[in-house]
């Protein structure tokens, strides 16, 4: 694997985004350019964490070309085995999704249940994002329990209960659960459920946002657990990340 490329995270400027990026947001987004996110991914992998690449193209950008360019650059950098590419199936053509799945790195399908299911049979090795807050999430987890499922936490007591119900299903099955939350209580529950089901540390993983609870990410990784960092990039990432942060508030 190539070493992380120095000096790449310099793209947080109006020239790159079309507007001035608040300093607070810069720590949560890799940058608008492919080289920005590849540099960040290299640093994370060197530190012992895995990466979920989450490109968010800007308005008017060629999304398929941006995803393909990032995938190619990650392969060239030798980072593909340590990365997943989150693919929004409702915003890319079927052919574009299938091309990404064939070329690598591994893909995780995100989007409406109908859109994901329409592609699931063609890419059986792909992971699937399941938001615990959505209606029918537990049923989806039962259907997908033998696959790689990234279970995403929501907000509020009801969402937490739904998350734990889905977590129980996934941890007891034969697939590879990915527990996407930065809530310390849910992180602890995930560890308990994994132990209860006799899961080895390499049979499941934590997924946490870039720049969020970094010390906890490092603590989990140092304890021998698998930690994947979700890294937003692209010209649309700042706005999308700001909305996510507001939703967590």
Explain how this protein is built:
- The protein has one domain: TIM Barrel (Alpha-Beta Barrel), CATH 3.20.20.220.
- The model is unreliable at 1-9 (pLDDT under 50).
- An 8-stranded parallel barrel has the order 1-2-3-4-5-6-7-8, surrounded by 8 helices.
- The chain has 11 helices and 8 strands.
- By secondary structure, it is α/β, with parallel strands linked by helices.
- The chain has helices at residues 14-17, 23-26, 34-46, 63-76, 94-103, 113-120, 137-144, 157-171, 184-196, 214-222, 237-248; strands at residues 50-55, 83-88, 106-110, 127-131, 148-152, 176-180, 205-209, 227-233.
- Helix 3 runs parallel beside helix 4 (63-76), helix 4 (63-76) packs parallel to helix 5 and helix 7 packs parallel to helix 8.
Task: Provide keyphrases for this structure.
alpha/beta; TIM Barrel; 11 helices; eight-stranded parallel beta barrel
Write the layout of secondary structure elements.
Blueprint: H1 14-17, H2 23-26, H3 34-46, E1 50-55, H4 63-76, E2 83-88, H5 94-103, E3 106-110, H6 113-120, E4 127-131, H7 137-144, E5 148-152, H8 157-171, E6 176-180, H9 184-196, E7 205-209, H10 214-222, E8 227-233, H11 237-248
Helix pairs in contact: 3-4, 4-5, 7-8, 8-9
The gross shape turns out to be globular
Helical fraction equals: 40-55%
How are the strands ordered across the major sheet?
A: 1-2-3-4-5-6-7-8
Number of strands: 8
């Amino acid at each position: 694997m190539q070493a992380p490329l120095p000096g790449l995270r310099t793209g947080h400027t109006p020239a790159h985004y079309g507007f001035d990026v608040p300093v607070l947001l810069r720590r949560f987004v890799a940058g608008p350019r492919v080289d920005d996110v590849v540099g960040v991914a290299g640093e994370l992998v060197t530190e012992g964490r895995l990466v979920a690449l989450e490109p968010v193209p800007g308005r008017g950008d060629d999304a398929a070309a941006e995803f393909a360019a990032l995938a190619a650059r990650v392969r060239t950098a030798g980072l593909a085995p340590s990365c997943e590419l989150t693919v929004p199936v409702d915003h890319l053509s079927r052919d574009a999704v299938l091309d990404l799945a064939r070329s690598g790195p591994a893909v995780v399908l995100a989007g409406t249940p109908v859109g994901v299911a329409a592609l699931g049979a063609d890419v059986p090795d792909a992971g699937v994002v399941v938001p615990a807050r959505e209606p029918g999430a537990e049923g989806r987890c039962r259907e997908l329990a033998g696959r790689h499922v990234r279970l995403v936490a929501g907000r509020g007591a009801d969402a937490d209960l739904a998350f734990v119900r889905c977590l129980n299903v996934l941890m007891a099955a034969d697939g590879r659960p990915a527990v996407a939350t930065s809530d310390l209580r849910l992180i602890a529950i995930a560890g308990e459920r994994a132990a209860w089901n006799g899961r080895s540390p390499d049979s499941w993983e934590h997924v946490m946002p870039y720049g969020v609870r970094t010390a906890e990410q490092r603590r989990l990784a140092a304890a021998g657990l698998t930690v994947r960092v979700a890294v937003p990039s692209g010209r649309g990432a700042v706005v999308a990340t700001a909305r996510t942060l507001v939703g967590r508030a």
